[in-house]
Write a structure and sequence with these properties.
Layout lengths: L21 H10 L29 H14 L1
């Protein structure tokens, strides 16, 4: 049974994937200087592909001023 189009995610291809294609693995190995031209494409070493966590959003100047005021009032 197929999924209704309204239930599909928009960025289905942009999400985190645990398995990399061979070309993606080669680029990661090149960046880490673990692969050079002429090496075999078969039997590539494993590559750790970690999901990047979202950082905290930066606070605006007004939010910082309010936070400082509440901290000063609490002391």
């Amino acid at each position: 049974m197929s999924i209704d189009p309204s239930l599909k995610t928009r960025n289905a291809l942009a999400r985190h994937r645990n398995v990399l294609s061979r070309a993606e693995r080669v680029t990661v190995l090149k960046d880490e200087e673990r692969w050079s031209e002429g090496d075999s494409l078969l039997g590539l070493p494993k590559v750790a592909h970690r999901k990047a966590g979202a950082g905290k959003k930066a606070k605006g100047p007004e939010a910082k001023a309010e936070e400082e005021a509440t901290n000063a009032a609490a002391e």
